[in-house]
Batch of 4 targets.
Target 1
Amino acid sequence: MSWTITPAHIDGLARGAAVLGTGGGGDPYIGALLARQALASGDVPVVALDEVPDDALVLFVAMMGAPTVMVEKLPSLAEVIEPVKALGIHLGRPVTHIACAEVGGVNSTIPIAAAAALGLPLVDADGMGRAFPELQMVLPTLYGVTASPLAFSDEKGNTGVLQTADNSWTERIARVACVEMGCSVMISGFSMSGTAARESLVAGSLSRCIEIGRSIATARDEKTDPVAAVVELLGGRELFGGKVVDVNRATTTGFARGRARIDGDGGTMLTLRFQNEHLVAEADGAVLATTPDLIMVLDGESGEPITTEGLRYGQRVRVIAAPADERWHSAEALAMVGPGYFGYDLAAHRFDGTVSAADASTGAAA
């Protein structure tokens, strides 16, 4: 079913995307500002994934880099649409649809800005169902969709198009360019047909973001528990609640990396480890959940999502976990986004604490 994104949708969509972004994806406030600016020229039609024509040319549009940098290095609309224009010229055919690479903070609203500025429809879908830190970490990679040619641009007017051997090489080369260009750039790539999009994307992502954002706002208005509302909507569980007592965070090689510690009642402590997004949650040495399932930090009272760059000493927070798209738990996907890829000698633990079957079968450390 087709519908339209208007400025009235932006706050709820950005809030819901920041929840699904698992701490990453960039500052939702910045993305919301860009989207509103672009929507001033007209609303954006949204097309359901199953309604995208077979011969469509669908492109991802996203910010690549460290979310911490984007707070000070604000993108412009010109910077957002330049990679799409460059890629259309490179491919020699018109772009027909814009899609989100991930639902996470700014990367769910930047595609709205691009679609509005270019007069193109947006697909109600994304490439992950959450956010991940590296470019190749999208479901289309598992289906043979190539990231390149990948176009990128910065605020200085630099634009380039990469053609690489595979999606991991696209990430490696583009990351170096990203660091040289100030640790954040706008990108467009993963050109795919409507047929490939329907096969590989996560359907209904934008609608889900709006639903999550609406559930938080409604719970607050009705003076019920907004965190519980999100847990119920996502089919997840609450892992921990307490006060942030330590955040160790640094921007290195184009990522925001670090850990956060949260003191709970009765002397328990939760440690969160992140690389843009939360990857591991463990309490007193016991692993509660890991990537690829979703680990999210919400304000303890308001239910407002808190990004990894927004974590601060003294915040009262609640940490929740929810299931990822089931395709992320295949052996091939876990090799790309499981704890082992990020250097943790751990099996992938699902949101409910059980070990992912694919990791259990390979004998990964629990």
Note: The first strand starts at residue 3 and ends at 5.
Target 2
Amino acid sequence: MSSVLVTGASRGIGRAVAAELAARGHRVIATARDPETLAGLPVDQRLRLDVTDQDTVDLAVRRAGEIDVLISNAGATVRAPLESVPPAEVERLFRLNTLGALRVTQAVLPAMRRRGAGRLVFVSSVQGRLVLPLTGPYAASKWALEALAETLALETAGFGVRVSIVQPGAVSSGGAERAKVFLAEDDPYLPLQEALAGLRGETVTPQDVAAAVARTVEEPDPPLRVPVGPPAERLLRARKQAPEDRPFHPAGTGRQPGGAADPPKC
């Protein structure tokens, strides 16, 4: 069984991943900004780790001991049009979703490289490969995360370190409901918010994502990208097959403000 460090384990996907891996017999180090939120998790260690704070990352990695697998899960999102989203919020998402993942990776990777073995598993999203209206900053942070992860896969393959990117679609974890929203009552982009709600469609549970993560951890030769659930698989397949000379609109995008209805593409 592996020694697994999970970031963002206080709730949602991260908590489900920590519980699933512990139930399978792995030694799990669950981490969160507030370790008190990890109470009740049946794991080996509960540690403070803020992916945006280098000191907490270094201390948690030292306390964890040998780490075979990193599950990089900590993240957040916002709802806002790019015309008016505060740049500070975009910076916050990149610090958390992208640079935070890189910071923890840099802390655990040297030991994996020296041992000649290790796993890096990044929890991304279908939005790491496509975009939706009003979630551009989140998608941009996940596209950047996937670029870093794929680069790591190339750079570390010769050292026995395997990299995987887990790509769920909509997850019933409450993350969308907790997202900051930057839309005024008379905002011209409000129709897109209604369309975005319809785009979520069928969801998967945090436990579904946790099972996919656990299978990826335990698979001898895991794929680089792991879509979670039929909706994600269909959407990513449609994106791959769509022409590259115009924006890809998932089915149900609906009528844009002041324009004609967009044809469905999947």
Note: The radius of gyration is 19 Å.
Target 3
Amino acid sequence: MNNTLEMPTLYKRLSNIGLPQKYIQEKALPEWWDTELENDPVAVLEVAGRIAKRLGLDMASVLNPDAPITFKKISSPKFKKTQKSDENRLVVAQGLAARIAEMVTYACKQPFLSLSTDAVEIRDSILEKHTHIDLDAVLNFCWRCGIPVVHFSEFPKGVIKMDGMAAFLNGRPVIVLSSNHKYSAQLLFIILHEIGHIASGHVQDCILIDEKITKEIQDTEENQANDFAKTILFGEPDKYQWGKQSDSIQLARVARQLANKDRVQAGALALNYAWQRNEWNIGVGALKILEPRPNAPVIVNRYLEKGLDWESLDPDSEEYLKFVTGV
């Protein structure tokens, strides 16, 4: 039995759970670490503790050279996955995202007020302060209610990502987005879907992971969350019965017209067309016309930067959270 913690062995043990050495070196090591410190047992012990804390790993398992490394259990996970997907492939994404959610909920400035269980009421509340239901309006609403939203997608290469995650941690709901979609309407719908899960009581005692939000997943909670999202967007879940659009240009034109009338982001209408008719080429083409320079993840984390009390985090957690969210 070897009780000495050594970096090569630590890298191997981390790699065994889906955290390869390159990822650890690029994302999880503190700024002060130097490879020359690998021969210093005290420094290795210190950096192992930092890695565990940053990545949400069980500290005891990391510090025991003879134990398998595990993620710290914050709350029981509930996986909403595609039919053929193995939920074990989502464990790494869930563990890393849960640690981000834990830090964000701890540092959120605004106390959690409440969240209506009525989607129409939420829509009306948003439109009292904004001209349209769009990404900025919904992010503003979430942070005003004390529901932090963060975009985090810094996962190891090959790890199955998720569209979104909703949880209730440190006395408040939180939404983590991991989708690589850049268009505002795409992240908007994921946020509203997660709001639907929170408002419907689906995450009271668990962390809920949406691998991919689609209408093909036959699940009562997923259907409820989808309908909740569409009701906030449009006022009712099945408001539009789309006829065939000849191309993306026509869809973008129609979406703009309806957006002004119905007070909703035009891109959300283009997505609704693609969702309803399964014509994603036309729908995404319209998004490119409506939002030629998309940067939705950046927008999401701008609100994060303003909404957190960064000084409430310890320096190492602050350093890591800023690094992986790009703020």
Note: The mean pLDDT is 94.
Target 4
Amino acid sequence: MSNKQARVPQPVESERIPLKARKVSFSWEGTPLHWVPGDPFTTHTINVLHLLLPAGERWFVHVYKQVLPYIRDERLREDVIGFIGQEAMHSQAHDEVLPHLREQGLDPTPYTAQVDWLFEKLLGDRTLPPGRARRWWLMERVALIAAIEHYTAFLGDWVLNAEELDRRGADPTMLDLLRWHGAEEVEHRSVAFELFMHVDGGYRRRARTWATAFTALVFLWQRGVRFFMENDPTLLDGKATFKDFHVRGRHGLLPSTGDMLRSIPRYLSRDYHPSQEGSTEQAIAYLASSPAAVAADAAVTVADDKRSAA
């Protein structure tokens, strides 16, 4: 029996927009170590993004450049190229937070070295003969990215609506980084899944790689939070527990446990399509007001005007 899905999930056509990379920049001089005031646990739980994303999104880009020759649909190819540009910028933006953490006494190198090994060695290219084996490994990684992107879109939608962070006085520069990134994750949330469906689409592979991705994300995230809490120079006995996460989720400072659990059957549904989650309209509205994105667009306009005048 075929491993293909009997029904191909259909996108919401109105959610499709051209993707572009926004060359944003952020200044971290005024951002405190605990950028959610008085709440190191929430701060460090979200800070794990800065540890995982630079290597992870470089890996996305590397894998997608390899899969481009397999794409037979020009519109999807354009989406994938736009996705590559956005992911490369995300990697750079989060990477630039790490020196700021070091200046505040939190050196993430021991943890990021492990993350680099995971993406570059364990999930990197393998010496395989051309043909079936090499394609199998490429398709496995394409499916893993689709599963991971389900959660980056989930987190992007969450942070766009996380009003409690504003009420608690979270640092506006860090919020802008997170919401700019989150908005672009919502904006391109369908690309990874549609690419997987285009080049493979096997349901068993989708379910298997979801289990791998979810397990790895939970493992890496809790290790990252523990690493930050134990090495925070301002904490005498920094600890991280699931109860801390659950309580802050109930208060709106982090994604709720229930919302995360409900995201699982959605991805595993045979009718799943990412465009049915989140709001492109909301994402675009934030990108139109984000200080960093607005500055990036203005810089492009100035550069274009100079070229036109030359």
Note: Residues 132-160 form the longest helix (29 residues).
